[in-house]
Design goal:
heterodimer; A: mainly beta; 6-stranded mixed sheet; 5-stranded antiparallel sheet; 1 helix; rod-shaped; B: alpha+beta; 3-stranded antiparallel sheet; two-stranded antiparallel ribbon; 3 helices; 27% helix; elongated
């Protein structure tokens, strides 16, 4: 038998022509050794699974994974799965998908719902083994995903959770009780870059000069301290703004501007708070808002 | 957007914001709060802090004529101590439990006195 005698069976609907992958054809072509010209770098022998890791800070969207597999019969199979919406608590979860035998062609992860870049992160990898003996084989894709900006692989960019611009957030701070200091904490699983803060302090009639001092601490130790450029008298209301790249200014009696460290990153558990010299039990911080850039810290 | 009030510090916060949960943590006690907690007996302090609070109280007595209040060295020291209040709430999640069973609730650092929803 030689190659001229071999009549290739007709392809079934949907079946791809893959020269050299059919046993009879290999025999006809005198291919004495296994001839494997895989259509992808990732042959699957049935023991591999697709594992998707996700973490998200929101509850308004969820990841959707799409994978294409060329199975043993030469047909393209598509796997499309929505991953259950997480609790939005930045925790990392994983889910595995059976792939069967064949070749993994590609995998794409995108989001469905209301989401901006930096809020849902996903990682796709092949794992080998069943039960408790699973081991990571290869990383296929990772990055932040939105509705129109997927992570894909193989061949796509592989971006860690701290890469990129992060998610821009406008966060309303906690309004403390009268006489209490402003204080908010970076949530678990997040990394913040503080771009700016605004807050208003309304002082009581008790005569004393108040001097707000903004502190950034690691939960215990102060890493940044900047005091207001001016004092605030009793029975007044002043707006305080702290921002990167600004210059200290106390000339406007109703808007005090002060500085923040450029690109200063805060880890989970770090606090943004004030220490106010002369604070009275009737003083009130209000209208607190943080402009932050957030990454998921995985 | 629901508004919650902390049962420990009485601070108010909104959650969720833009689909993101806000995890409240009480601020450390300010000097007026420390003095009030000490005077009302709502919180016990170790001897060193008690002495500082007593000193801060003296420092902060209004001056006879002007009524002005001084904020002296004891107050400055107390401000730096970052003393937490009774029932301190920290709703942030405990590190190290991030990859446990997603169907199980994730533990908070300190549920403390909890929070109360005050508006839907």
């Amino acid at each position: 038998m030689n190659g001229d005698d071999y009549v290739k069976p007709p392809l079934e609907p949907g079946q791809l022509d893959m020269p050299g992958t059919d046993y009879a054809e290999r025999q006809a072509l005198n291919l004495t050794r296994e001839f494997l010209m895989g259509p992808s770098l990732y042959p699957l022998d049935g023991s591999e699974r697709l594992r998707i890791w996700t973490a998200q800070s929101i509850t308004t969207a969820f990841p959707v994974v799409t994978a294409r597999i060329l199975n043993r019969a030469g047909r393209v199979q598509r796997l499309v799965r929505s991953i259950a919406q997480g609790a939005g608590n930045r925790a990392v979860n994983s889910i595995d998908f059976e792939l069967g035998e064949g070749f993994l062609l590609d995998v794409t992860i995108r989001a469905a719902g209301t989401v901006i870049a930096g809020q849902i992160w996903a990682l796709a990898e092949l794992i080998v083994g069943l039960g408790g003996e699973k081991q990571t084989s290869v990383t296929l894709a990772q990055g932040y995903v939105t509705v129109n900006s997927p992570a894909w692989g193989p061949g796509g960019p592989s971006l860690g959770s701290l890469d990129g611009q992060g998610a821009i957030r406008s966060v309303a701070g906690t309004t403390p009780a009268a006489g209490a200091e402003l204080s908010d904490t970076v949530p678990t699983g997040a990394r913040w870059e503080l771009i700016a803060i605004v807050a208003t302090l309304t002082t009581s009639a008790v005569v004393a000069n108040r001097t707000p001092v903004l502190l950034l601490d690691d939960g215990a130790n102060v890493v940044w301290r900047v005091g207001s450029a001016q004092t605030q008298a009793a029975s007044t209301t002043e707006s305080y703004s702290f921002g990167q790249g600004t210059a200290r200014s106390g000339t406007n009696p109703s808007a005090v501007v002060d500085i923040l460290p450029n690109r200063g990153a805060l880890l989970a558990g770090w606090r943004i708070r004030t220490l106010t010299a002369g604070i009275d039990v009737g003083d009130q911080y209000s209208a607190i808002r943080y402009w932050v850039r957030e990454w998921l810290e995985l | 957007m629901a508004v919650y009030q902390c049962n420990a510090c009485q601070g108010r916060f909104q959650s969720p914001q833009g689909g993101q949960t806000v995890y409240h943590e009480c601020p450390p006690l300010s000097v007026p709060e420390l003095i009030a907690a000490h005077d009302n007996g709502t919180q016990a302090f170790p001897p060193g802090q008690t002495a500082l609070i007593a000193q801060a109280k003296v420092e902060r007595k209004p001056k006879p004529i002007t009524g002005e209040v001084d904020d002296g060295p004891a107050s400055a020291t107390l401000r730096r101590l970052s003393i937490t209040r009774t029932g301190h709430v920290d709703q942030n999640l405990i590190d190290g439990v991030l990859q446990k069973d997603p169907t199980q609730p994730v533990d908070q650092v300190s549920p403390g006195a909890g929070v109360t929803q005050v508006s839907p």
